[in-house]
Amino acid sequence: xxxxxxxxxxxxxxxxxIALIGWIYVPATNAQPSTPSPETAPPPPQDATPPTPKQSSxxxxxxxxxxxxxxxxxxxxxFSLLNKHVLTDNLAIHGAMTxxxxxxxxxxxxxxxxxxxxxxxxxxxxxxxxGGGIIVHYEDGTKVNPLVTGGIDASxxxxxxxxxxxxxxxxxxxxxxxGILFGIGKNY
Length: 188
Hints:
The chain has one helix and nine strands. The protein is mostly beta strands.
């Protein structure tokens, strides 16, 4: 199989996997919320705390700047497909596929702890995150190694999220491939 055909097949498989994960975990939104009648609704509390800011799931694209290493495309300049799927208020799955670099393509998936932060004066929700997972790279067969990630997502009221993350894939005992990923995604 030629390198271009292999990359195209990997992109297709990864896109289908990301779409299936989003389809499986997206909650149903067609249920009608029940609203109490005005006579039975309790009065709002006087000292109500502001609502917790909500983070958004997204799918998007961006770039990768390689910092260290030489085994995967995480350590090279490359194009990236990025995604995030929110599981709970503080847990999410961050994924990335780095392709079209000068090295072998790689996929990363990490379970992250998130803490959404908002300012009442700004309509943007900042969500710093940190977590761990796996990096899958395709060099002489498929190889799976541990991954650590951290960064920040910034959701806008326009349905877009900007992301900046640093990924470290531990490819061997003495080497880590490190890259900075940045991009923008469409919220869903």
